[in-house]
């Protein structure tokens, strides 16, 4: 697959430097991933930045992902020693479990402080992830009515706010943004499809064709049901696009099929979860 992205964000280095500073201030890091693309939305750079700090995976948008593959992904993370929670930031599902996982992960840190004679020290946590994965929504969920900022602390950069989200638990009120670097064209494609990358930097038509190829192979019934069409296994993308155009009345003047309109429709329906629950990244075997 030759899927190219023209992507050179100048703020990548700045974001990395900023995160290095922020990570020094926290005890636990929550990395938020898109459950439809858990591998593509993780950032390998974070491993170097974290060092020995505990990390928890928060899988967001699970309601839009393939449930069986989500379970397989959770097993993969757990087998790698990573606590993992499914969350839905829009409804708040799984957020309480995430808070208790953070408290569990921070226990060794608290024990260390206790040995030094420091009691009641708050756990400090930070939420990181690539753009558009739902970090701010999760922060708003966690903060809820607790809009009271924690007292200023020495060594905390001005402008960074700590918010108490539970007893003895403080959250850095700025999500850490890591910009993706695409060494693998499949990762670039998956992030383009899920809306993590601006549309002007890639070929939307090619991306939607590759998505539809995957749906024909792995989720044919979802396509058939959503667009009230039928096709044989191994049908071409063009054939499926034409059937959708007829079914949905995507027509130009003179009764010509409007394939551009179909491309917009399929991409929009995938992103909003209207096609059904789809996972693009295959879980590790």
Can you walk me through this structure?
It is a single chain. The chain is 42% helix and 12% strand. It is α/β, with parallel strands linked by helices and 285 residues long. Strand 5 and strand 6 form a beta hairpin. About 4% of the residues have low confidence.
Short description:
This protein is α/β, with parallel strands linked by helices. It is built from ten helices and seven strands.
Key descriptive features of the protein:
285 residues, alpha/beta, 7-stranded mixed sheet
Structural class: alpha/beta
Mean pLDDT: 87
Fraction of residues in helices? 40-55%
Summarize the helix and strand pattern as letters.
HEHEHEHEHEEEHHHHH
Please indicate the percent range of residues in DSSP E strands (runs of 2 or more).
5-15%
Mind sketching the topology for me?
Elements: H1 11-24, E1 28-34, H2 45-50, E2 55-60, H3 67-79, E3 84-86, H4 95-115, E4 123-129, H5 135-143, E5 162-166, E6 169-172, E7 176-177, H6 185-193, H7 204-218, H8 220-227, H9 237-248, H10 259-271
Parallel strand pairs: 1-2, 1-4, 2-3, 4-6, 4-7
Antiparallel strand pairs: 5-6
């Amino acid at each position: 697959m030759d899927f190219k992205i023209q992507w050179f964000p100048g703020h990548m280095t700045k974001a990395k430097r900023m995160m290095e500073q922020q990570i020094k201030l926290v005890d636990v890091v929550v990395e938020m991933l898109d459950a439809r693309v858990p591998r593509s939305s993780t950032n390998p750079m974070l491993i170097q930045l974290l060092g020995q700090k505990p990390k928890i995976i928060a899988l967001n948008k699970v309601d839009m992902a393939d449930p069986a593959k989500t379970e397989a992904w959770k097993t993969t993370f757990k087998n790698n020693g990573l606590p993992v929670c499914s969350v839905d930031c829009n409804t708040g599902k799984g957020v309480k479990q995430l808070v208790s996982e953070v408290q569990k992960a921070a226990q060794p840190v608290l024990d260390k402080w206790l040995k030094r004679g420091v009691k009641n020290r708050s756990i400090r946590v930070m939420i990181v992830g690539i753009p558009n994965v739902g970090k701010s929504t999760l922060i708003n969920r966690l903060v809820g009515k607790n809009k009271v900022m924690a007292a200023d602390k020495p060594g905390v950069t001005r402008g960074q706010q700590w918010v108490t989200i539970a007893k003895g638990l403080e959250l850095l009120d700025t999500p850490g943004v890591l910009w993706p670097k695409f060494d693998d064209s499949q990762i670039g494609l998956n992030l383009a499809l899920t809306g993590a990358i601006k549309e002007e930097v890639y070929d939307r038509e090619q991306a939607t064709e590759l998505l539809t190829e995957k749906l024909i192979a792995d989720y044919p019934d979802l396509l058939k049901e959503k667009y009230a069409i039928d096709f044989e296994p191994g049908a071409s993308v063009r054939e499926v696009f034409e059937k959708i155009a007829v079914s949905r009345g995507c027509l130009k003047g003179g009764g010509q099929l409007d394939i551009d309109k179909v491309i917009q429709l399929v991409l929009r329906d995938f992103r909003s979860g209207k096609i059904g629950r789809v996972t693009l990244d295959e879980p590790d075997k």
